[in-house]
Amino acid sequence: MTNKILTEENIHLNVSLKDKEEAIRYTGKILVDNNYVNEEYIDHMLEREEISSTYMGNHVAIPHGTEESKKEVLQTGISVVTLPDGVEFAEGKIAKVLIGIAGKGDEHLEVLSKIAIVLSDEENVEKIINSHSKQEILQLFSEVK
């Protein structure tokens, strides 16, 4: 994954959030603060969650916008947030890793497939949850071609 899509500024470790809405807003704010999306994108992320949960299993949620939110995307990027205490994303489904996605055009499909490769290995998810360094996470994602 190119360095521009995921940087150290996009990774926040050991965050404590109270609920799913706060978690989605936090994940989206990283994308806003690093100039990947306009502020309105966060509302679309919350709308998307209403349509169906972005919880993917294995303690991972991938909040992202709706089809209509594409106009709010300035450039493709992802944010990574680790939540050691977790946040309930669906009934009984606790997310400890949040990966916010903003894809320009159809680039989100490529980004999603690379994220899926990393997260398909439960060991990688554990490494992310327990990571003490942003470099460790950058390394995991950079290994995907």
Describe this protein's structure.
A 5-stranded mixed β-sheet has the order 1-4-5-3-2. With 145 residues, it is an alpha/beta fold. The protein has one domain (8-142): Mannitol-specific EII, Chain A (3-Layer(aba) Sandwich). A hairpin with a 2-residue loop joins strand 2 and strand 3 (60-61). The chain has 5 helices and 5 strands, in the order E-H-H-E-E-E-E-H-H-H. It has helices at residues 20-33, 40-51, 107-119, 122-129, 134-142; strands spanning 11-12, 55-57, 60-61, 77-90, 93-102. Helix 1 (20-33) runs antiparallel to helix 2 (40-51).
In short:
This protein is an alpha/beta fold and 145 residues long. The chain has five helices and five strands, in the order E-H-H-E-E-E-E-H-H-H.
Give the topology.
Blueprint: E1 11-12, H1 20-33, H2 40-51, E2 55-57, E3 60-61, E4 77-90, E5 93-102, H3 107-119, H4 122-129, H5 134-142
Parallel strand pairs: 1-4, 3-5
Antiparallel strand pairs: 2-3, 4-5
What would the CATH topology be? Mannitol-specific EII, Chain A
Number of helices: 5
Low-pLDDT ranges: none
Strand order of the largest sheet: 1-4-5-3-2
Which CATH class applies here?
A: Alpha Beta
What proportion of the residues is helical, as a percent range? Answer: 25-40%
- What is the typical, i.e. mean, pLDDT? 93
Annotated CATH homologous superfamily: Mannitol-specific EII, Chain A
N-to-C series of helices and strands = EHHEEEEHHH
Name the shape in a single word: globular
- Count of the domains: 1
The largest pleated sheet is described as:
5 strands, mixed
